[in-house]
């Protein structure tokens, strides 16, 4: 069976935002809720950093340097990863729930982050 001349109209517009295409629907049209976008790299890094912090605080390792030697990693890398434990709780929660901004990457966080939570939100929550 052949269907000639069949057309389907979908009221929407495509916009580019941050290198990604977004579908913009007209006002009043119902859309489904956005699905969380879990970032396994970010989640694993957060889990690892908090685990390392607990190991240091419990006395299992005396310092980040000792932990780094045990893990066969550089002191610098372990220190940068441990800084993830200083993220604002709402940012950490958003990452774990897949609600963080799409452009937020581990490399961005490891480059250096402010200690003040308000500054973190301003810097990372764009």
From TrEMBL:
Name under which the protein is recorded: Bacteriophage-related protein
Q: Which organism is it from?
A: Tepidamorphus gemmatus
């Amino acid at each position: 069976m052949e269907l000639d001349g069949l057309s389907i109209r979908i009221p929407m517009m495509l916009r580019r935002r941050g290198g990604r295409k977004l579908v913009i629907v007209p006002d009043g049209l119902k859309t489904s809720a956005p699905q969380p976008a879990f970032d396994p790299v970010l989640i694993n890094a957060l889990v690892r950093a908090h685990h390392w912090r607990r190991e240091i605080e419990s006395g299992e390792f005396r310092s980040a340097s000792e932990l780094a030697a045990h893990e066969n990693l550089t002191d610098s890398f372990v220190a940068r990863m441990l800084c993830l434990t200083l993220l604002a709780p709402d940012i950490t929660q958003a990452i774990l729930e897949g609600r963080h901004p799409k452009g937020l990457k581990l490399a961005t966080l490891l480059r250096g982050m402010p200690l003040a939570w308000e500054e973190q939100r301003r810097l990372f929550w764009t």
